[in-house]
Amino acid sequence: FGFIDKTKACFTWSMSVALWCCTLTFSAGWYKGQAIPLSIAAASCHGEVDSVQLEQQQTPFTRQPSCTVWSCPSRLGSSHRELSSLISSVVQAACDLLGPYPFQRVDFLVMPRSFGCLGLANPNMIFLSPSSLPGDGSMIYRIAHEVSHAWYGLHIGAKDWTEEWLSEGVCTFCEERIVSRLKKWDNSTQRHHEGLRMLLKRRSLTTELQHTDDSLQVMKPSTVDQASAGNEVACVKDALDISKCFMQVHYIKGYFLLHFLASKSGYEAFDEFFKNFTIGVGGTNISSKDFFSAYFSVCPHLQCEMFNAQRVEEDWLRTAGMPPVVEDCAPHANPLIADVYAKFDKWRLFLTHHQKSSHSKLGATSVKQNSDWVPEQTVLFLELLLESNLPVKVCCFHQLQSEFEMNKQNAEVRHRWCELVVAQRYRSGYPSVERLLVEDQGMGVYLYGELILSRQAAAHKLACALYRRLSQELDRDAKHAVLEMISPLL
Fold first, then answer.
1. Where residue 34 falls among pLDDT bands split at 50, 70, 90?
2. pLDDT, mean of residues 369-389
3. Which of 202, 350, 416, 458 gives a 20 to 30 Å CA spacing to 159?
4. Considering the entire predicted model, what is its pTM?
């Protein structure tokens, strides 16, 4: 860049890699940086692919990508420590899954708490919310998701911008495969963790579909309007609908679609196809038809009347509602899920008895500390407790908070905890709600809605006070959504 005068500067931005679906973004502020040395296998830098594929991919980089963490000074130390322990393994596992890393750098910029989402991938730099770095590495799926966007979303774009699943759905699938690789799980352990996450995503999708217009549930909506003169005018459907910023339909349905295809071909065969496809289409725009055509060209033996490209597109991309093959997971078949249901059953009995006797107590022998639980198990437990509608008395809240150490959990777990606090009118837990709405603003919109719908004067007062306090720093879209909910109370 160069200065035009004392008050203005001119910036020039260029890339040596083809970017087909990318917007230039920037963050203005005072940041300090600290490098992280990466150790990526040489094959992941230039790839074990032939020269024709590399030429098609338009990726000239054959050296190690560099990595620097940027943050405000007060967060730099903790952010650097957490990312240093994760990023080499994440990038290596991503390269093993998707092929050579397509950019020269994989930098991270830790954004202010008002950042409107948990992460946003840009060429060479990933923006992260502080909520994605809780200090214990438990948000590793989020880091893996954003790294995946270097391939799908940046280096590989979508011909049809309404096919968001080709970016978000693919990366939601990839994050899981990346984490299983870096954790070096055996097949059985991998299936158990995938089964737990599938159950949670199915539950999330079910809830979202109940509150979403059918037109927003379709992953490939019509993008052509007929002009009065009879000419076709392409448009991006629902592009100005702010509610789409907070929806997960394309993420989750795309995730389940890829699992569906992988289950048909076998996961090992699918991984091989997926990597070769990613390398082959690097630096280009693709469509769903391109993806399905490539898949069935590799697996022609799978085609039949009930399973072919046209049928998959119709059932998965053009139909609203729950995909027909997304089934409930049997809890007893997965030890991670079975453990959660066992603990929930004990708590359900305890809460039922506690309504009859104030002296009822959940004995120490029936309560296991949850140090070996992954965050997804705690989220599932809290969801089950929330759905049960059983009254939770103050002493029970204290025991839950102590047993699960809620104050030390990541933002995703604390969000479910806050939902339970609001639903049960547990006013002593409102500091937890305030903490999440202040420190984890990218996750707070839904919780404002819960406070409003609770019809509690104290909850309304808290929501209004926090909105007034934070209105000048809230993300624009989040502010618009919250104001729409809260304006009758102001």
1. very high
2. 91
3. 202
4. 0.88
Q: What is the percent of the chain with per-residue pLDDT over 70, rounded to a whole number? A: 79
Helix (H) or strand (E) holding 203: helix 187-210
Q: Give me the active site residues, please.
A: 146
pLDDT computed for residue 366 by the predictor: 44
Q: How far apart are CA 71 and CA 110, in angstroms?
A: 5
**If we measure between CA atoms, which residue out of 230, 204, 98, 210 comes closest to residue 151?**
98
Helix 140-148 / helix 87-98 crossing angle, nearest 10 deg: 50
Return the exposure string of 397-411: e unless at least 16 CB atoms fall within 10 Å of the residue's CB, then b. bebbbeebebeebbb
**CA–CA separation, 62 and 266 (whole Å):** 32
CA gap 328, 350 in Å, rounded: 27
DSSP 65: P
**What pLDDT digit, counting tens, does each position of 224-256 carry?**
444 444 444 455 555 555 555 667 888 999 999
- Residue 224: what residue type? V
| Beta bridge partner(s), residue 156 | 152
Half-sphere exposure in the Cβ direction for 201 (13 Å, CA): 24
Q: What is the radius of gyration, based on Cα positions, of the chain?
A: 24
